[in-house]
């Protein structure tokens, strides 16, 4: 991969590079694609970092063929990407399209570095308007103007669910737990009669500690609407009740005592090696987990634990939703109209389908109305397809995307069973449709780490729950109060529309 050092007007002591894989400027003469012509200008597209050469990728070639545009792809560096992006903007590097995360999008849109797209999309983007749902535009709108095409991903899906050694449940004559009281009894039996770690987990992220058990206490979304006002989950009594329960499990040896040290990989290892009876499995890790368990214990049987019910007998599960990426046109683009035409051509229905899952009969096939990959062509050619997306056909992409989970029977089984178990139980965050909120953007990461550290300490008993009020004061002082104010300013405005 060739690296090109961008020439900046001002460069600090930090050496920042932008990957210009292939190193070629876009050519004005292009092969004619869908509606393409040789008069179309070459375009420059800035992408997020990836460990491949985008200019040599199969998907890049399909995009040029379908849109009629010759494209030179460049990437932000793996480290210090935000700093590199800021310097590119200062230098007015003439990119025509950029793919940005939420923080990058807000910083550039609010500083006037992005072209408002309302008029351009209205005139040149009929496929964009058809592909993107009206509700999705809220996340890309600042001060009443659209500054990017929101990319919402493959729709709402649940990633994780508790899994248990079914053979051990049967051996001990235990029923599948349906609530936290029953779960406590099952874990206690595993400890006393199987002499294993009843429940293991990891400290990798706040989401690693939450999930099925937290939801049974009412802790699901980051933000909760309390009488029209957003309250963060750490400021709820439900969070304290959840932590008290987890501390009880930990102090009685029912929760892995090495939880404060475990990575997700370590938790998988403990379950697959027979050291632990339960843990939270992710569908995307299921083949490695189940194959390792079967290799160690050929007769082992496992089952997903249905999402636990709360005291009222209702189960719920949190699903991440909202916008993942933004495709934008910088103010300093030399080809703004062509940039929008290019983005629009990518979202033409047939073009998008081929970009997403390739050619039927070559990369995928349709069986019973579902899309299945044809291997190895699907993996060989389409492994990086999602990286090239700049908005998705929101109505159809979830169905296309599921071809990716049908590459392996275990992967498919866990994905589909977890979704089936979650049907009718899903809740989403009230802040999900919001555009990037500056008070949230500048505080969220630090506050998540503070929350994670304290949650681990409260669970493990290193910090008594009687100190929860002191934690909240620190959380508010270190940005929680500001973040809550910013979240509510948007929420109340959005509700009044």
Describe the structure using short key phrases:
disordered N terminus, 19 strands, 5-stranded mixed beta sheet, 4-stranded mixed beta sheet, 497 residues
Describe this structure in words.
The chain is α/β, with parallel strands linked by helices and 497 residues long. The chain is 41% helix and 14% strand. The protein has helices at residues 58-67, 81-90, 102-110, 118-124, 126-131, 166-172, 180-194, 206-209, 212-216, 237-251, 264-272, 286-296, 336-346, 349-357, 377-382, 397-401, 409-422, 438-441, 444-460, 468-496, and strands at residues 3-4, 18-19, 43-47, 71-75, 97-100, 141-142, 145-146, 149-151, 160-165, 197-199, 223-226, 229-232, 276-282, 302-304, 317-318, 325-328, 364-367, 370-373, 426-427. A 5-stranded mixed β-sheet has the order 4-3-5-16-8. Strand 17 and strand 18 form a beta hairpin. Helix 10 packs across helix 19 (444-460), helix 11 packs parallel to helix 12 and helix 19 (444-460) packs across helix 20 (468-496). The chain is globular. The model is unreliable at 1-17 and 29-37 (pLDDT under 50).
Concise description?
The chain contains 20 helices and 19 strands. With 497 residues, it is an alpha/beta fold.
Envelope shape: globular
Helix residue percentage = 40-55%
Query: Given the structure, what is the number of helices?
Result: 20
Task: Give the end-to-end Cα distance, rounded to a whole number of Å.
Answer: 49 Å
Q: Biggest sheet, in brief?
A: 5 strands, mixed
Which structural class best describes the helix and strand composition? alpha/beta
Question: What percent of residues are in strands?
Answer: 5-15%
What is the total tally of β strands?
A: 19
What's the overall average pLDDT, rounded? 91
